[in-house]
Amino acid sequence: MFSPDGALAIGRSMTQTVDIFDVTGEPRLRSSIRFGRGYPTSLAFSPDGGLLAVGSHRTGNVSVFSTTSTARPVAEVSDLRTPGQTIALALSSHNTLAVGTLTGAFVYQLGTPGTAPRALAAPSGANGSAGSVAFDPAGTLLAIDDIVSGTILLWDFSDPERPTSYATIARGQRHRQPTMLAFAADGAVLTESAVDGTLRRWRTDAAAEADRICASGTIRITHEEWADALPGHAYVNTCPAR
To answer: Which residues does residue 101 pair with via DSSP β-bridges, in sequence order?
Structure first.
């Protein structure tokens, strides 16, 4: 595993220790993290490589370390319910931590080192089982692999105090779990990979995608088609310029 800039690499043995190597030249050991809360089963760098989240599904614990001073964690989350041997981690550019387990996705605001992370609310009615989580580079959009529904949820954290559901991506044909999610460097594309070799990519700018579809010459959705697909919802002209 490499940091986003490719300068650091993670080495992990069958112990509770995580080694950080500087690989800007000849690889050298930069520091070692003694997790001390079970065997590490999930890792995630922050976008600038300054923080590393380490978690264990065996104990339900997550610790966040500075990659320049690894003696003590800067934040810790404990006693998470982690059935099914699943825990996924993501750190954003706004010092938020996302944790995905089979009981749901949970987001925390990291404070000053040594203070307890503050739990943030999830969009109302939008939480399912999370097999993978990923923040976009801006740190405002969180992608969640919802195992139960077979969809990918996108949550908007532009306002961390009032997150909203941005979109739901329907995969269509299911594929073998587990999966991994990652945003492109510009945040415009979300990529999903699965252990069965499936690779899928989606554009994530809903407005730009709507404009692209409307400009393609597609036929406008009729009132009858809308009522059949979305009963109980008021009709919206999806391509008003046509």
So the answer is: 104
What pTM does this model have?
0.84
Written as six digits, the tokens of 51 are: 């923080």
- Please name the residues in contact with 207: beta carbons below 8 A apart, sequence gap of 6 or more: none
Q: Determine the Cα–Cα distance for residues 237 and 220; give it in Å rounded to an integer.
A: 8
Tokens of 221: 């959705």
Longest dimension (CA), the chain: 65
Q: What are phi and psi of 226, to 5 degrees?
A: -60, -45
pLDDT digits (tens, 9 = 90+) for 63-80: 999 998 877 899 999 888
Which one of 30-34, 45-49, 70-74 scores highest in mean pLDDT? 45-49
Rama region for 192: left / alpha / beta (φ>0; ψ in -120 to 50; rest): beta
